[in-house]
Amino acid sequence: MFHGPSIDEFFPEVLFSLGPIPITRIHLIQFIATLAVVLVFWLGTRRMRVVPGRFQSLTEMGLDFVRVNIAEDLLGKKDGARFLPILTTMFFMILFMNLTGIIPFLNLAGTAIIAVPLLLAVVSYVTFIYAGVKKSPKNFFKNSLFPSGVPPFLYIIVTPLEFISTFIIRPITLTLRLLMNMMVGHLMLVLFFSATQFFLFTMGGWWSALAAGSLAFGLAFTVFEILVAVLQAYVFTILTAVYIQLAVAEEH
């Protein structure tokens, strides 16, 4: 009998506990992704050379991508340098955890449970608030909730909408966008490859032709998931940079 993907896969059994903290398969995947990030950048920067080798070049290309295309492009050199560490950490943490979803024997993104996207959204939210208050302690909240150019009698409508969209909707959408993309991607991959196994080994015969089709779709969707993994890391990080840019804008 064919068993399709289930939401239960995102609630795995506890493997062991570290004190009061239960550790599941997803937590182990998150640990592996975190160690991979640290290892890659340690290896890429431990012996810096004027004429870089291939691995150092790749590492520098990744760092320059975040610095030039996200931080400096949106925030300028000064503010870009200030917030570059948090934007770089955010981008590569999301990227590596997303990519675990297509790695054999892991097969699940570290961002496919709400804890990680929510934590990153909280970090993004706190950074946005900090940047705005630091830039303009007296006017940040006032200008956010009472935008200039609006007739005073409309503030009774505009201010609640601004509060909801700016201070509530942003962290929620950041969390759900990343979470849902990773969950759906995992479910689709499981569906294609489970169908391949079912048609090939359970049904057999002419059903094997369908197995070839589902396998082809699975492989194609795996390539697509790599693109999604990179894109979601980019979108989350660039939206964080956009929020910071809005917070430090001159009108605040």
TrEMBL record:
<keyword id="KW-0406">Ion transport</keyword>
<dbReference type="GO" id="GO:0046933">
    <property type="term" value="F:proton-transporting ATP synthase activity, rotational mechanism"/>
</dbReference>
<keyword id="KW-0812">Transmembrane</keyword>
<feature type="transmembrane region" description="Helical">
    <location>
        <begin position="112"/>
        <end position="133"/>
    </location>
</feature>
<comment type="similarity">
    <text>Belongs to the ATPase A chain family.</text>
</comment>
<protein>
    <recommendedName>
        <fullName>ATP synthase subunit a</fullName>
    </recommendedName>
</protein>
<keyword id="KW-0813">Transport</keyword>
<keyword id="KW-0066">ATP synthesis</keyword>
<dbReference type="InterPro" id="IPR045083">
    <property type="entry name" value="ATP_synth_F0_asu_bact/mt"/>
</dbReference>
<keyword id="KW-0375">Hydrogen ion transport</keyword>
<dbReference type="GO" id="GO:0005886">
    <property type="term" value="C:plasma membrane"/>
</dbReference>
<comment type="function">
    <text>Key component of the proton channel; it plays a direct role in the translocation of protons across the membrane.</text>
</comment>
<feature type="transmembrane region" description="Helical">
    <location>
        <begin position="26"/>
        <end position="44"/>
    </location>
</feature>
<keyword id="KW-1133">Transmembrane helix</keyword>
<feature type="transmembrane region" description="Helical">
    <location>
        <begin position="153"/>
        <end position="172"/>
    </location>
</feature>
<keyword id="KW-0472">Membrane</keyword>
<keyword id="KW-1003">Cell membrane</keyword>
<dbReference type="Pfam" id="PF00119">
    <property type="entry name" value="ATP-synt_A"/>
</dbReference>
<dbReference type="GO" id="GO:0045259">
    <property type="term" value="C:proton-transporting ATP synthase complex"/>
</dbReference>
<feature type="transmembrane region" description="Helical">
    <location>
        <begin position="178"/>
        <end position="199"/>
    </location>
</feature>
<dbReference type="InterPro" id="IPR000568">
    <property type="entry name" value="ATP_synth_F0_asu"/>
</dbReference>
<feature type="transmembrane region" description="Helical">
    <location>
        <begin position="83"/>
        <end position="106"/>
    </location>
</feature>
<dbReference type="InterPro" id="IPR035908">
    <property type="entry name" value="F0_ATP_A_sf"/>
</dbReference>
<keyword id="KW-0138">CF(0)</keyword>
